[in-house]
Amino acid sequence: MPKNKDIIIRHDIRGRMRLKIRSLKNKEAASNVTASLQRLDGLLWVRANPACASLVLGYNPEDIQRRALLERVSAAVGAPPPVQSTAPCGAKTKEKRPVRRAFRRFAAITAVLGAAVFRSSVLGLAVGQTLASPLGVAGLIFSAPLVRSGIRKLKSGRLSLDGFLAAGAVAAITAGEALTAFEILWINSGSELLTAWIAERSRRSIAEILEITSHHTFVLQDGVEVERAVSEVRPQEIVVLHTGEKISVDGVIVEGEAEINEAPLTGREELVNRGVGETVYAGTFVYKGVIQVRAEKVGDATYLARVMRKVQDALENRAPIEGVADQLAQSLVRIGFATTAATFLLTGSAWRAFTVLLVMACPCATVLAASTAVSAAISAAARRRILIKGGRYLEEIGKCDTVCFDKTGTLTTARPMAALILPEDGVDERELLQLACSAEIHNHHPLAQALKEAAARRGLEPIPHAVCVYFMGMGMRAVIQEREILVGNDKLAETFGVDFGARTPEIQRLRNQGYTVLQVYRDAEPIGLLAFASQLRPEAANVIERLKSMGVKRFMLVTGDEYGSAKPLADKLGITEVQASIMPEDKARFVELEMEQGRKVLMVGDGVNDALALSRADVGAAMGTSGSEVAIEAADIALVNDDLEALADVYDLSRRTLRVVRQNFWIATGSNIAGAALGALGLLSPAAAGLVHIGHTLGVLANSSRLLSFSTTNSPAKGAATGAMHGLPNTSQPAALFDRQTPHSGQNPPEVQSGRDEAPGSEKTDERQSRIACGC
Q1: Which pLDDT score, from 0 to 100, does residue 199 have?
Q2: What region, left, alpha or beta, does residue 157 occupy, with left being phi > 0 and alpha being psi -120 to 50 degrees?
Q3: How many whole angstroms separate alpha carbon 47 and alpha carbon 31?
């Protein structure tokens, strides 16, 4: 079936779609289509951009199906629905290679120009430059692509740079200045090569960032595990995954259970228990266990592949300042034609007029002033694992004067730390900690690691023992000094028929305050509680100070957590405004309210509950591929390394980029004006006019290339061993472990961790009795 070229799907994720529609180049048609679609049930918003003939749609998949939406768009446009490609992942397709094509053109023009210059300058031989000469004919051939492009855009009612360059080159050849024409063509082809190279470099950096799935996996065939390339796996096949292996498909578990490390997608260090009937995603890890997964989405259909497609077209999302450059270039050309006519009328010299024409009618450097700087900045950011989904967002983030932070996973880390140790009466605090550490000594769960670190800081050694059993998603049972020790959550207590009696409400109170709680029993008798909290990111305070120094005026903490947990963290960081206990839609409304008051808002978050606010803000920044899937897709910038310092880095990069662009404008415009004046006075020949182009274009490229070496500023807080827990003193004492009166002494608790107290997304955990024995 032939492809429908009237409507092309440029980008497509759940809830959002971008289409290229030829007829939308007409502003009236774009307005009519937008008005027609706004009344559609399930459509959240619609935005048309006639300049690039695009239509962007945000919709609720629960209210309207994707196919129905495309049919309505097709009806509004008056064109058949787009035809989707059904080629499987890995299928070979004709791939455009802009860098290779641009290099061939540049090399060919350089060879011809170099040979002509060598013949005339080194050998002292004459070089024919007339229209009928070999050099003139070659110039016309190399000018043909520019001529075709200029004519095509002229038919659509637009004066383009290609048309101006083609006119200048053909005019030079006609006037017997073929070498001057080749100078114009050489500059143009060089700028195209550089732009293509920077774009390819950015895409390569982005691809390396997101290349986190395996290349091979094991597929079950006739009861036998067969190794196969991931690109060859098909939907509905059964993939077998063992401990330590990376999951390479999105699918449903059909046999077995395992602890899954979903940090690459969710940012949470605690492991998640997954069993039969539950979904796992490409890019996550099997931390412990063996599972068989029925592949539902493979290759290009997985979540990571969708993110890849989205960020790879980032360079198509042009910054507003790039449009300013184009407009300035067109204005210069119009002024140039007027100046050329005036020079001819005032001096009567066609030679001088022609020189002015060559200077003013080829504003290559002006057009490159913004595009090269933006492309270089996006490439530099990608190499530092910062994904910027278009020049628009690179420009806008540096203009934001208000920053709204989420708390969980944004200002705090996902790594738990022992915060409270609460022994029962008659039990020594050190004894409780040592018994719990001994039971957990062979467990690698993040909570167990935090427990062992706390014991080590107190100089406590684990007690040797012979028996320990791990209950997946529950906790540990060990026999220590001939006594049974249990360390775990409510599910473990329920399994063994034990409870904390009168202190059970205290457990719930601690959870409500933001702690993750483990219960410790000896011979079925409760001996104490261990409470864990997340830590304030060590770089958070420095990031806020850097943003303040760069012009951000207001900082707000916008969180769904309780006010009592959020306020101490805000005070610690100097954030004066706190919006606590609010729902996701309230976050979005709060952001919109700030924008309505004329503020430029940057929203920073990492979770599903931040996605709506991220999409509504002027710029949304998510904590990288470690943030939730929805947050990453809704955000405009992703901080892939999960390092908050990158937020200040990209803000700084935005300001530097705009500075470089303004410098480029002065270089390009100033040299054009100076060249035109010298040409009008007869002090500049047509050949020298070409050299002016070479000089100021190279100046612009060199200035923009400085952004490729953009260096980030390291936080003095980086490298701290643990960081501080918010709301609690940061001490080198035994890891901020406090006595059991701490919850009642006015201290505000740190961040909640879901840990082993619950298994998000799983209702089957109660039934899991998987036991993994270990030799102790």
Answers
A1: 63
A2: left
A3: 10
Write the DSSP symbol of residue 455. Answer: H
Write down the pLDDT at residue 362.
Answer: 58
Please check whether residue 441 is in contact with residue 462, taking contact to mean a CB–CB distance below 8 angstroms: yes
Q: What is the dihedral of CA 356, 362, 366, 367, to 10 degrees?
A: 160
Q: According to the 3-state scheme, what is the secondary structure of 266-320? A: HCCCCCEEECCCCEECCCCEEEEEEEEEEEEECHHHCHHHHHHHHHHCHHHCCCH
d(CA 510, CA 466): 33
- Give the whole-angstrom CA distance, residue 180 versus residue 194: 21
Burial (CB < 10 A; 0-12, 13-18, 19+), residue 708, is middle
Assess whether 326 carries a catalytic annotation. Answer: no
Identify the burial level of 671 via C-beta atoms within 10 angstroms of its C-beta, where 0-12 means exposed, 13-18 middle and 19 or more buried: buried
Q: Which residues contact 456 (CB under 8 A, 6 or more apart)?
A: none
Residue 489 phi, psi (nearest 5): -105, -165
Assign 678 a pLDDT band (cuts: 50, 70, 90).
Answer: confident
Distances (CA, A) of 677 to 168, 364, 609, 691: 18, 18, 60, 15
Tell me which residue of 320, 377, 13, 392 sits closest to 205, measured CA to CA. Answer: 377
pLDDT at 360: 65
Going 614 to 619 to 625 to 629, the CA torsion angle's sign is: positive
Strand partners, 294: 238, 252
- Please tell me the distance from the alpha carbon of residue 198 to that of residue 127, in angstroms, as a whole number: 36
pTM of the predicted protein model? 0.57
Q: Outline where 40-97 has alpha helix (H).
A: 66-77
Of 118, 105, 129, 122, the residue nearest 180 (C-alpha) = 129
What whole-number distance in Å separates Cα of residue 134 and Cα of residue 178? 10
Sign of the alpha-carbon torsion through 526, 528, 533, 535: negative
Helices 686-705, 178-210: axis angle to 10 degrees equals 10
The span from the first CA to the last CA of the chain, in angstroms, equals 65
Tell me the one-letter amino acid at 364: C
- What are the two backbone dihedrals, phi and then psi, of residue 209, each rounded to the nearest 5 degrees? -65, -40
Which of these ranges, 223-232, 493-502, 573-582, 598-607, has the smallest mean pLDDT?
Answer: 223-232
Adjacent-strand bridge partners of 251: 280, 295
In a 13 Å sphere around the CA of 80, the CA atoms on its Cβ side amount to 8
Give the Å distances, CA to CA, from 494 to 474, 476, 501.
Answer: 10, 13, 13
Nearest to 696 by CA among 661, 666, 660, 676: 666
The residue annotated as part of the active site, out of 406, 606, 618, 643, is 406
Distance CA 450, CA 532 (A): 8
Residue 172 and residue 362 in contact, taking contact as beta carbons nearer than 8 Å? no
More confident residue, 320 or 556: 556
Identity of the highest mean pLDDT range in 39-53, 405-419, 541-555, 720-734: 541-555
The Cα 131–Cα 134 span in angstroms is 8
Q: Are 11 and 18 in contact (CB under 8 A)?
A: yes
The token pair that represents 167 in the structure block: 């006119």
Q: What are phi and psi of 398, to 5 degrees?
A: -70, -10
* pLDDT higher than 70, residue 156: no
Residue 397 DSSP SS3: helix
- CA nearest neighbour of 475 among 464, 485, 486: 486
Give me the phi and psi of 357, to 5 degrees please.
-60, -45
Contact 198/376 with Cβ under 8 angstroms? yes
Residue 711 and residue 664 in contact, taking contact as beta carbons nearer than 8 Å = no
Angle CA 198–634–600, to nearest 5: 85
